[in-house]
Amino acid sequence: MADNYLERHREEYEQRKANWLKRKRHFPHSKPSPPQKPDDEAL
Question: How many CB atoms are closer than 10 A to CB 18?
């Protein structure tokens, strides 16, 4: 095996992780809205 096999894979992993985290920050978690109550509670 190549001497730098693990190092190369670690670098690729770090790049993928950085890209994933960068994309993740652009999409904030939205909280689900509470269910809407009907105007007439008898329904």
Answer: 10
